[in-house]
Queue: 2 jobs
Job 1
Amino acid sequence: MMVCVCNAIREREVREAARSGSMTACQAYRTMGMQPKCGQCVPFARAIIDEERAAA
């Protein structure tokens, strides 16, 4: 599923960033060499990261 249309970031990529230690959406995006643009994706990315942290 697409998380960020502006940067073409997929859910899988956000989950991988979270597993690699990213604690926030901005940290996850930085690990991919990007940053949020319009910001609409941040709450969804944050929820994915929270899920991954809870499962760890």
Note: The chain is about 55% helix and 10% strand.
Job 2
Amino acid sequence: MSTAVSEKSGTWRNWAGNVTALPVREVTPASVDELSAAVRKAAEDGLRVKAVGTGHSFTAAAATDGVLIRPQLLTGIRRIDRAAMTVTVEAGTPLKRLNMALAREGLSLTNMGDIMEQTVSGATSTGTHGTGRDSASIAAQITGLELVTADGSVLTCSESENPEVFASARIGIGALGIVTAITFSVEPVFLLTAREEPMTFDKVTADFEELFTENEHFEFYWFPHTGNCNTKRNNRSAGPENPVGPVRGWIEDEFLSNGAFQVANLLGRAVPAAIPSIAAFSSRVLSARTYTDIPYKVFTSPRRVRFVEMEYAVPREALVETLRELKAMVDSSTLRVSFPVEVRTAPADDITLSTASGRDSAYIAVHMFRGTPYQAYFTAAERIFTAHEGRPHWGKVHTRDAEYFSRAYPRFGEFTALRDRLDPDRRFANDYLRRVLGS
């Protein structure tokens, strides 16, 4: 198969539509060799290179005016090692396809995020995570990586091979090279029982430590302009399987959570004064439910209503105070917020620029419906998050720069030194990386 190269590519847009780029050309390599050749050719032409997955980042992490690499032909499972309990997968594979393929093999990742449209490399490179008391982000489940570096050579890394690269490249924001394959630790497929129920904001925040401690995976959504939350507890189960019925699943996950929610947001965008009433209604529309299924059917949900998002990780012990400040800010402002605020957790990990690097973390994500002005809300929220030593998600809207990150991450210098070594000419640079890592 030959490489598909279009010299005059069109405008690239991300999923949310808030980032656009006009690359000189797009390349869709069908092999690692073709990708290496594309990187070398870009160097000859004096062009920067970026790989882009599904564009699910809200930042310009993948934007380029040079060569845009699309990895959609680099997909599928390379090998499953049942002795080591690992799976090696091509970088362009969507998480959805990986999860389904693993389930057919009787295997599963230990933890995963809520959305599974992203490619494995895009999701891990930006630090995508779910929620977990003991199990961490998708990147924390990586045991090996293969990447094409700035000179076109292929570098493999793991805890035993190029360990200093492994420490950083699992969440590399595209700055160290182009990831071509990832090896994940997996386990035999298991069952999770999900318990979803409404709870008041005051009760969730008062009992947060207990809810966190007693559940393997706890998360909740707070609806601004109300004192209402929806909580979700996922715990391993001996079974039997008891999935959400198809009719109820369609009503709650498609009609209410996507269709009706889209209509409510369109109404709120047209008539902002109606948002508090809509929020009060939305927060009560989903009733309590309990179901048991395989992991990806419990962890992930369809997200068809488009939005823009900011998410910060704060030290877990600072979560409740941070959240109460956020609620007080919204309550005392003229802001009208139609999207719930999502709260999750992760244990400390050892990845250089992971938002949970070296500290137990809690995540607070604020969203605005696509097409509504979000700057005032995000600016006010960011002021609160940064006052609590927050670290922004690499793929979500934020205004922080390298100076801030050098203070927020004890190992920041370790990452930038490795970047100097692997990409001295900044072949993989763009405006976003210049801002967050320095030039």
Note: Residues 81 and 87 are 6 Å apart (CA to CA).
